Amino acid sequence: MNTAVVTFPGSNCDDDARDTLARVMECSVKAVWHKDRLSFSDFDLVVLPGGFSYGDYLRCGAMASLSPVMEGIKEFAAKGGRVLGICNGFQILCEAGLLPGALTINAGQKFICKDVSLKVENSVAPWTCEWKVAEKAVFPIAHGDGRYWIDEAGLAKLKSQNQILFTYLENPNGSTGDIAGIRNEQGNVFGLMPHPERASELRSRDGLKLWKSIRSLGKVAS
C-alpha cells in the first residue's frame, strides 16, 4: 500500500505514523511537507497525523487547513482517495470542510492522556472491516481539544448515514453522542481522535486492526 504522511509545523505523531506504516505494516511511505503542492493520485492513503499544528493558534487545525498541501488532499478526497486524520488530523479535516462538525476544548478544560475503550459502530466501511459491530477496541488519547461537537440535525444525519465508526464507552471529553471517530458521506475520509498508531506495536495493539482494514482496500460503503 502506497501511503503519504503529511507533516505540519507542530506535528509530533508523524514519525509514529510513518514507522507503524513502514515497519509494522510494511507499506511504502512518503513523507510530505505542508508546503508541498502535489497530486496524491499515486497514493492509496493520505494520513494527517496528530500534534499541535501551528501551535494550535486560532482554532486547532484551522491554520493547517489552509496549508498549500491541502489543495491536493481535497482533490484526492473528491476523487475517492482515502484520507485518515488522527487527533490533530481530525481537527484539520473538520476545519477544511472534509468532515462535518468541529473539535472543541474538552469538558473540564483539561488535557487528557490515557487509554480509552471504544465501541465499533460500523464494520462495513473499509476503515473498520476487521472488526465486528459492537466489538471493543482500546486506543490511547492525548488531547486538550478533543470534544467533538455537531448540532442535533447533524448528529441525526451522521446516524442515518452510518457515518459514526467509533464511540467512547466512557466519554472522556464530552463529545456529542460519545463520538470518537466519523467518516464522510462517501466513506473515504475518516477522522479519529484516539491514536491507533500508538496501539499497533505496544499497548493494546488494537490499532493493527485499523491498519489491516485500510490495507484490505475493500469497497467503500455508501
End-to-end gap = 23 Å
The helix content, as a percent range, equals 10-25%
Based on DSSP secondary structure assignment, what is the total number of beta strands? 11
List unreliable stretches of 5+ residues: 218-222
CA-based gyration radius: 15 Å
Mean pLDDT: 94
Instruction: Give the overall form.
Output: globular
Largest sheet: 9 strands, mixed
Strand order of the largest sheet: 2-1-3-4-11-10-9-6-7
Helix-strand sequence: EHEEHEHEEEEHEEEH
Please report which band the strand proportion falls in: under 5%, 5-15%, 15-25%, 25-35%, 35-45% or over 45%. Answer: 25-35%
Number of helices: 5
Secondary structure class reads alpha/beta
Summarize the structure.
With 222 residues, the chain is α/β, with parallel strands linked by helices. 22% of the residues lie in helices and 26% in strands.
